[in-house]
Each structure stands twice: as C-alpha cells, then as structure tokens.
Design brief:
With about 325 residues, the chain is an alpha/beta fold. It is built from 16 helices and 10 strands. It is globular and about 50 Å long.
C-alpha cells in the first residue's frame, strides 16, 4: 500500500535520472563525462561531500532553458506522486544557472510553470524554496532573494542556503535573510549536515531559520537540541543522502532516533534522489527502520510546510482520513 507523504527537502537539479539528463544534454549540445545511463550512474559514487558538489555542478550545468527547468519539476512530480507524495517543497539554485548565461526570469518562470503543471498533470502540490549558494557573492545572494519575492505569487515560499557548509558558515548571509523576511519569505537554510552545532546555531540566530535542512548534527549539543525541540523547529532529515555523502557512516549510526527521542520534529526527504540512488519510499522506509513511523513523518512534514492555510487544511484532511494501520 502506498501511504501519503510530504517532502520538504529535494533539489530539483538532483532529481534528474540519467536517461533524462542524457536527453537534456543532447538537446542542449552539452558534453557529459559519460555516454550511457550506466556510465553516468557510476560517477555518482561519491568520495565525500565536496566530491558530491563537484559532480552535482558538472551534471546540472546541462540545464539551460525554461523548458528544461519545467521538465525537471514535472518529471519529479510524477515520480514523487507514484510514491504517494501529495506535497513537495522543491529547491533550485538559480545563481548557478545565471553564471552559465541563463536569465533569472527564464529560470524562475520555468520552475514556476513546472509547479503549476505538476498540480494539473499529477495532482501534487509543489512549492519552491530556492537556495542562495555558499561562496557566491553577496550581490548574487541579494538578487536571488529579490527574484524569489518577484515570484512569490507563483509558488515561491522561502529562501534557503546551500553548498559547502563547512567552508562557508551562515553568519555572513544574515543581510540576505533579513531582506528575505522583510519581503515575506521564510528562512530554510541547510545547516548541521557536514558542519556541527555552531552552524546550526548560526542558522537559527543569524538567519532566523524557521526550519532546518538536515540539522542532524544538533544531536551533538544537548542544549541546542532541547532548544530546537522546544521551539519546534522542523528538521528535514534525509537518511539515505546522509549515508551517500558520508555524513553518517552507516544507517544504524544515523542520529534520527536520538533526535526523535529528544522531541525534535523530523520530516523525511530524499535530498538528491537521482544522484543518491534513492526515492521517497526508500527514505521513508529507512526512517521507519530508525523508529520514525510514516504517520509521524507525514505530520512533521505538515508542520514544517510553508504552504497557505487552504492547502495545509487539505493536507491535514488527507492525513486524518488515511488508515495508517500499514501492514
């Protein structure tokens, strides 16, 4: 039985399966470091987080046009819906594409068109939370925020911070997130994945995070973890991603059980499913192995979702009306 799922942390650039990436690269006359689906899949055997970022940039540079961005969203919506997803908050990193010569409006309109088509074609609600990229200029960070605000009425609900967390702490990005909040956008940065509690603390105190992408290393600071639980800051936990990037050594060592035991609200997501060889069902199953049952993950996702109240009420009704006695 497929049960309803909410996903709050998925990078659309990392959802592109090898077959689609080869198709898009050919369409855009972009050379990939592989010619077949099997060869392309093989390069996703990451040595570490930095290697993952390098491969991620290399492959996602194939995305060039409004049609590419729209297709990425609708393709993943179809995949996620097949796993029971009823709501997805998707991430994209516009400044990377702008550096490759693509226009801001072409990028944003493509993703927003895709979100609309996802609802029409697959019955799934998609909202968008683009990332500011660590290490890029502060001008690019501010421009990202301003374009997010421009497209607020088309499904942009928040702004994130992604990239090399250990090398670029959150504090310098405070002005960009101050601007985001002024413009009505929520703060949903990556923190506590490959860097420890100081990164999480910075995201909460300086960026005003209402939700944390990952946040798992908060477990290393009991006081910080109590604060996160007390404030009900939802953590978007991606178990198999953490395993693939070596953020955790084995699934059995994943801190999700400790987070849940401490009262932290943990949603479950895939992060970059095509690159990590996972899907939403597998990550929910991994979470269940670690003690977070599907209903709890769904309710955490609902609590963390940045959608409007009518959508939230529909999602709540979906959860309340489902028979969660899963065999």
């Amino acid at each position: 039985m497929t049960y309803p799922k909410i996903e709050l942390h998925v990078h659309f650039e990392g959802t592109v399966r090898p077959r689609t990436l080869l198709e898009i690269a050919k369409r855009n006359d972009y050379a990939l470091p592989a010619d077949t689906e099997e060869e392309l899949a093989a390069i996703y055997d990451f040595r570490d987080f930095r290697h993952f970022i390098e491969v991620w940039v290399l492959t996602t540079n194939a995305l060039r046009t409004e049609a590419d961005f729209r297709q990425v969203v609708t393709d993943y919506a179809a995949e996620a819906a097949s796993h029971g997803a009823v709501y997805v908050e998707g991430i994209f990193s516009p400044a990377e594409r702008v550096r490759r010569g693509v226009g801001w409006d072409e990028i944003f309109s493509g993703y927003c068109d895709g979100a609309e088509e996802a609802r029409e074609l697959h019955g799934i609600e998609v909202r968008l939370t683009p990332d500011i990229i660590r290490g890029f200029s502060f001008e690019e960070a501010e421009e990202t925020v301003r374009y997010c605000a421009k497209y607020r009425e088309r499904g942009i609900v928040g702004v994130g911070l992604g990239g090399l967390e250990a090398e670029f702490p959150p504090e310098p990005y405070e002005p960009a997130f101050d601007l985001a909040r002024e413009l009505g956008l929520a703060s949903v940065p990556h923190a506590g994945e490959v860097a420890g509690p100081p990164s999480v603390r910075g995201a909460l105190e300086k960026l005003g995070a209402v939700r944390l992408r990952h946040g798992i290393r908060a477990v290393e600071d009991p006081g910080l973890l109590r604060e996160i639980a007390g404030r009900r800051v939802v953590l978007d936990v991606c178990p198999l991603s953490n395993l693939r990037t070596r953020a955790v050594r084995t699934l059995a060592e994943h801190p999700l059980p400790q987070l849940v035991a401490a009262g932290a609200v943990c949603s479950i997501s895939t992060d970059d499913p095509a690159m990590f060889g996972t899907d939403l069902s597998r990550d929910y199953e991994a979470a269940a192995q670690l003690g977070l049952e599907p209903r709890g993950a769904y309710e955490a996702g609902l609590e963390g979702a940045l959608c409007d109240e009518p959508t939230r009420n529909r999602l709540k009704d979906t959860g309340d009306s489902f028979d969660w006695q899963i065999p």
